[in-house]
Amino acid sequence: MHVKTTVRVGAYIIRQNPQGLHQLLLFRHPDCPEAPVQIPGGGVESQESLECALHREIFEECGLSGLTIIRKLGVAEICWRQPHKLASYRHCFLLQAPRNTPDAWDQVVQGDGIDAGMKFSYFWHRPTNDFRLPADLGYFLYPEHIPELYYLNQQA
What we know:
Blueprint: E1 4-16, E2 22-28, E3 41-43, H1 50-62, E4 68-80, E5 86-96, E6 104-108, E7 119-125
Parallel strand pairs: 1-5
Antiparallel strand pairs: 1-2, 1-3, 2-7, 4-5, 6-7
């Protein structure tokens, strides 16, 4: 049986707040309150490098550009069986945003993906050890992967 695969990227974007603590960029769907809080990311287009897809998705979804990639966190693999077999490979990266990035903003998604035209509401959050994101979006949201978010005096 054929298993469809998708290749995606995920952006764990951090910044330092005025107190010197790192925060993670998250968004809500204000027009769809039942949707979970998420990080920016999306599909990789044919012939597109992971890094190009990452920067394109960040710009389309949150309007930010020129962010510095700190490191690749790894690949989160998720498999579904219903209604069709599907394997998704999300390449996740940690990026640094400037300190002067706004504290919160709304962004209408650009591009031609399924989320084009949707409004996302962005905000910064300093997660605790029990904070979780859904499925593959939260795979690397742990102190061993992003110590900057959980410990004081960690440099990005």
